[in-house]
Design brief:
With 431 residues, the protein is mainly β.
């Protein structure tokens, strides 16, 4: 998006009217006879119950737009603990996303990039100037429709969380509290920005969960922010987001572990430098469930101690292959039960034979070393087995090629993480 000319003032505070030869308040069009530029603002002044996904438009005759500002006064709710932090409409130095917009090349029209807040009193301040320096300001006021509890789209969970330091393969995973039908508008409402710009795109695991991954991996040692501009976006018929969120995390060093299963070794590199070779024992490969998966694994979580019960992956007690083990220094690499972990009972096979139930067994010392250095989002690339990691098994998202990933994005276009905006419109159709 280009041509952004303004951001909103602090909601609920007084705004100084610019010096002008023609100035009107409470209307959507300047009305000074023969008095400089004529400005029109839509939605029309005085309207009530405007759908919040309606764009704000400003146009001018006999002049060019010099400034557009939007104020929104709406009830702010406290954030739930553990979610992405809310972005206020003004206070504390925050800006109102609705005030960002696209200015036409000839500077005679402006359209807001983002939606409005439900249940808000909205003021639009638009200023234009003609060729003689004559200036006009219009102040237009209207109100957006409110949303009741069952029609409110809320963020239920997100990973990473604000403040996390992650590996270079880390996806952004956001889960909503109800199904999203209008995925295109919601995708376009979620903007990812990184210090080292790259391309990325969203895919949907289901109707509630969206995942962003970069084209390749993140560059290490950089900050990334995710602006979930959900306020006013329509997720389904009559269902709207009510507040914006922001996630801020850091990409740390690059850790990549590689493993050709028949070699019984895992090699770990940090920032491209080999730092350790670990003797391992992987899955027996006698059945599907005990075959280690080949593919690009992204580490998900880790536990100093963990009870591993095969019943949690579909092998109940009494079934062939059932197991229940207490393990230490476990790092999850899939949702089908794969971990790297200590296996002192399997020492004789480490570096020699594959004898596990599908996990990557290590000595206690090696497992602890890997555990202590692992971040959520690190990479484990495995080859040499007959079972391929599914793209939606854990965070196997890089199992889809970039072309496949982009094809499965609802927008079908990449999002460049340089702060330039998202691929398409967040507004409702025909609004």
């Amino acid at each position: 998006m280009s041509g952004r000319v303004s951001r909103s003032a602090v909601a609920g505070t007084a705004v100084a009217v610019l010096v002008a030869t023609a100035c009107t308040t409470g209307g959507g069009e300047s009305a000074e006879p023969g008095g400089g530029p004529r400005i029109t603002v839509t939605p029309a002044p005085g309207r009530a119950s405007v759908p919040p996904n309606t764009p704000v438009r400003v146009s001018v005759e006999d002049g060019t737009i010099t400034d557009v500002r939007i104020e929104q006064a709406a009830h702010e709710e406290p954030a739930e603990p553990g979610t992405a932090r809310p972005v206020a409409a003004g206070g504390g130095g925050e800006t109102d996303a609705a005030a960002e917009g696209d200015l036409s090349e000839d500077r005679t029209s402006w359209v807001s990039d983002w939606n409005l807040r439900p249940g808000a009193s909205v003021r639009v301040y638009a200023t234009a100037e003609d060729g003689t320096g004559r200036e006009t300001e219009v102040v237009s006021q209207f109100a957006t429709a409110g949303v009741d509890g069952e029609h409110r789209l809320e963020l239920a969970a997100n990973l990473p969380r604000t403040g996390d330091v992650v590996g270079v393969g880390m996806p952004v995973v956001v889960t909503f509290d109800q199904p999203v039908e209008y995925k295109r508008q919601v995708e376009n409402s979620m903007e990812v920005t990184s210090e080292e710009a790259t391309e990325g795109a969203w895919n949907w695991l289901d109707d509630e969960t969206a995942v962003f991954r970069p084209r390749e991996y993140w560059e290490p040692y950089q900050r990334v922010s995710v602006d979930l501009r959900l306020a006013g976006v329509e997720a389904a018929e009559g269902v709207y987001g009510t507040r914006d969120r922001r996630i801020e995390f850091e990409v740390g060093r690059e850790l990549v572990a590689t493993m050709h299963v028949p070699d019984h070794r895992m090699r770990v590199a940090v920032d491209g430098e080999a730092v350790r070779t670990i003797p391992v024992s992987n899955g027996k490969g006698l059945r599907r469930f005990n075959t280690t998966t080949s593919g690009i694994h992204v580490t998900m979580e880790k536990y100093a101690t963990l009870v591993m019960d095969s019943a949690t992956v579909g092998i109940p007690k009494g079934s062939p292959g059932y197991y229940r083990l207490d393990v230490d220094w476990a790092v999850r690499t899939s949702n089908s039960g794969e971990f790297t972990h200590a296996a002192p009972w399997n020492l004789g096979n480490l570096g020699r034979a594959n004898a596990s139930n599908g996990c990557t067994n290590m000595s206690v010392a090696d497992a602890r070393w890997f555990y202590e250095r692992s971040l959520m989002g690190d990479l484990l690339v495995t080859t040499g087995t007959s079972r391929e990691l599914e793209w939606d098994n854990g965070w196997g998202f890089y199992q889809r090629s970039w072309e496949e990933w982009l094809e499965h994005s609802v927008t079908g276009e990449p999002q460049v993480t340089d702060g330039s905006g998202t691929p398409g419109s967040v507004h409702g159709d025909d609004l």
